[in-house]
Design a protein that fits this description.
Helices cover 48% and strands 18% of the residues. The chain is built from 11 helices and 11 strands. Strands 1-2-11-10-7-8 form a 6-stranded antiparallel beta sheet. The protein has a 5-stranded antiparallel beta sheet with strand order 3-4-5-6-9, covered by helices on one side. The protein is elongated and about 90 Å long. The protein starts with a helix and ends in a 10-residue tail after the last strand.
C-alpha cells in the first residue's frame, strides 16, 4: 500500500510539473482523433478545450497561441475532409474562434483577480505585522520563537494571538484565542494586544495585567450587538519570567495549560484552580491567581492555542503535544516549533480546521564561569 501511495504521489507531482503541456496535448489529440475517425466525427471539443485550458494555466501570449493553434488545426482538418465551405464546417469553426476569443478574456480576468488577491495578501501580512509584531528573538538569557498557522489557506491572521515583551517586571508573554472568526475576532485581537502592551509595562503584578485585559474586553463586548455581546470571550495564558529567577509565574484564564520541557521530560503546567476566560468576570469573582512554576536553565516553556491539541487525523484522534514532544531534544525554541508544526501537519495530513498560535521561550543554560556564589 505504501508503494502504491508513493507511485500515486510521484505521478501526481509529475502531472503538476507538466500541466502547461496540456493545451498542446489537447490540440495534438484532437487532430489525431479528427484524422483517424470517419469524416462526420468531430474533435471540436478538443479544439475548444485547448485555449480554455491555456487561459487557466498559462500566460496571455500562450492563450493567444493556443487559440490560433486551435483555429488553424480545425480549419486544416475541415479543409482536408472538404467541410470548410459547408455550413456545418463553418459553424464548427465559428464555435472554436468564439471560444478562443473568450479564453483570452478569461485569462485577463483571472490575471486581474490574481493581482487583487496578491494585494489582499500584502495587506493581510501588513495587518498581521501591525497586530502581531515579531517579538525579539532573545531577551537576556531567554530565547523566544513564535509561529502562526491560519486555518484558512493563504490567510495571515485570525482569532489567535501572541505577544512577548521586555518590561520593568521581567519578560511578559501572552497567548490567547478569541471566540469566533473573521473580522470581529481580529478586532478583539487588536484590542487585547494593545491593552496587553500597555498594561505589561505599567502593572506591577501579572494579576493586574489580567484585570486590565478583563476590563478592556468587557468594554469591547458592550459595544457589540447580537450573540457576540453575550457570548464573546477570550481564553488566554499570561506569563512573567524574571531573568534572574529560576521560576516563572502564570495566570491561566480558561486556556490549554502550557508545557514545560526539560531534559527530555514534558510537564503540563496546570493552574492550581480553574478560571473562566477573559470577558466573563461577571459570572464569578476572584478569577485571577498567579501560579509559580520552576523554570531552570535549559528548560523551554511552550504556549499554544487549541488549534494544536485539537488537531485531528483522519480517524478523528486528537494530537497530543505532550506525548509528541516527550524525549525530544531541540537546539532551541525555533527548532522546537519547526518540529512541532511538522509533526502536527503529518498527523492531520496537512488539513487544518482551526488557527494555531505557538510561542516558545527557552532559558539558555548558564555558561561556565557565569555562576556566582
Amino acid at each position: 500500500m505504501r508503494a502504491l501511495g508513493a507511485v500515486r504521489t510521484t505521478v501526481g507531482r509529475w502531472c503538476l510539473r507538466h500541466l502547461q503541456l496540456l493545451p498542446v496535448l489537447l490540440l495534438a489529440g484532437g487532430a489525431l482523433v479528427d484524422y483517424v475517425t470517419p469524416p462526420h466525427v468531430s474533435a471540436e471539443a478538443f479544439y475548444t478545450a485547448a485555449p480554455m485550458t491555456a487561459a487557466a494555466l498559462l500566460s496571455l501570449r500562450a492563450t493567444v497561441l493556443a487559440g490560433i493553434g486551435a483555429c488553424a488545426t480545425d480549419m486544416a482538418l475541415l479543409a482536408h475532409f472538404g467541410f470548410l465551405r459547408q455550413s456545418g464546417g463553418l459553424s464548427e469553426l465559428a464555435a472554436v474562434v468564439t471560444v478562443s476569443s473568450l479564453a483570452v478574456v478569461v485569462n485577463r480576468l483571472m490575471y486581474y483577480s490574481y493581482v487583487r488577491l496578491q494585494s489582499a495578501r500584502r495587506i493581510a501580512l501588513a495587518a498581521q505585522r501591525a497586530v502581531l509584531p515579531q517579538p525579539p528573538s532573545s531577551i537576556g538569557p531567554l530565547r523566544i520563537a513564535v509561529r502562526y498557522q491560519a486555518a484558512v489557506k493563504d490567510a495571515q491572521i485570525g482569532g489567535d494571538f501572541y505577544s512577548a515583551q521586555d518590561t520593568p517586571y521581567g519578560v511578559r508573554c501572552l497567548v490567547g484565542d478569541v471566540r469566533g472568526k473573521g473580522l470581529d475576532a481580529v478586532k478583539v485581537v487588536a484590542v487585547a494586544m494593545g491593552v496587553f502592551r500597555e498594561a505589561a509595562e505599567e502593572e506591577p503584578t501579572l494579576v493586574g495585567v489580567a484585570a486590565r485585559l478583563e476590563r478592556a474586553l468587557l468594554r469591547e463586548r458592550e459595544r457589540r450587538t447580537g450573540p457576540e455581546r453575550t457570548e464573546g470571550f477570550v481564553t488566554g495564558v499570561l506569563v512573567e519570567i524574571r531573568p534572574c529567577d529560576d521560576e516563572l509565574r502564570l495566570v491561566n484564564r480558561g486556556h490549554p495549560a502550557p508545557l514545560l520541557l526539560h531534559a527530555g521530560r514534558v510537564h503540563s503546567a496546570e493552574p492550581s484552580e480553574p478560571a473562566l476566560p477573559l470577558g466573563l468576570a461577571e459570572l464569578a469573582a476572584g478569577q485571577d491567581r498567579a501560579d509559580t512554576v520552576p523554570f531552570p536553565s535549559g528548560a523551554t516553556l511552550l504556549l499554544y492555542t487549541d488549534g494544536l491539541n485539537e488537531a485531528r487525523n483522519r480517524a478523528g484522534d486528537f494530537y497530543d503535544p505532550a506525548t509528541g514532544l516527550a524525549g525530544g531534544e531541540f537546539a532551541g525554541p525555533d527548532a522546537l516549533l519547526d518540529a512541532l508544526l511538522s509533526a502536527v501537519n503529518h498527523h492531520t495530513g496537512g488539513r487544518s480546521s482551526d488557527d494555531m498560535a505557538l510561542l516558545a521561550v527557552t532559558r539558555a543554560p548558564a555558561a561556565p564561569g557565569d555562576e556566582t556564589g
